[in-house]
Write a structure and sequence with these properties.
Largest sheet: 4 strands, antiparallel
Distance between the termini: 25 Å
Strand order of the largest sheet: 3-2-1-4
Number of helices: 5
Helix content: 40-55%
Oligomer: single chain
Shape: globular
Number of strands: 4
Number of domains: 1
Strand content: 5-15%
Radius of gyration: 16 Å
Length: 135
């Protein structure tokens, strides 16, 4: 991931469950609408089925959906959902404001890529796949 000059700011109002991502007001219905207009995001829409409001401070499907929305609106690869989900689960169930700079985003991306590689390797091992030496 080539990190340009990224600034990620996530602000959430607990009472309304409305979230602003870098100043853009985001609701669940708006997120689904934006996903549909982008093309084939049916897998993500399916995973988020039943989410009425975004939430945070828990391990709910809504928190996962919000993590995906952060990736989408900040133009990050979907692998970054691992970072945002963990961050959102760690905050209190009240109004939030999370701000990340370039260094934090770069560090998080590298960590998420490593996690994904480990998850993928574990999954392929369970299927009995054999590694192919690239040399």
């Amino acid at each position: 991931m080539s990190v340009k000059n990224y600034h990620a700011e996530i602000v959430g109002n607990w009472k309304t469950r409305i979230v602003w991502i870098n100043g853009k007001r985001v609701t669940f219905s708006g997120f689904v609408r934006d996903l549909k207009s982008e093309g084939d995001s049916n897998d993500i829409i399916r995973e988020c089925k039943g989410v009425n409001n975004f939430s945070w401070g828990d391990t709910s499907q809504a928190t996962y959906c919000l993590a995906l929305a952060c990736c989408f609106y900040l133009n990050f690869k979907w692998v970054m959902d691992r970072f945002f989900e963990k961050e959102l689960e760690g905050v209190r169930q009240e109004d939030i404001r999370l701000v990340y700079d370039n260094d934090k985003i770069q560090e998080a991306y590298l960590h998420c890529e490593e996690l994904f590689a480990q998850e993928f390797t574990t999954f392929m091992d369970k299927l009995g796949a054999k590694r192919i030496d690239e040399n």
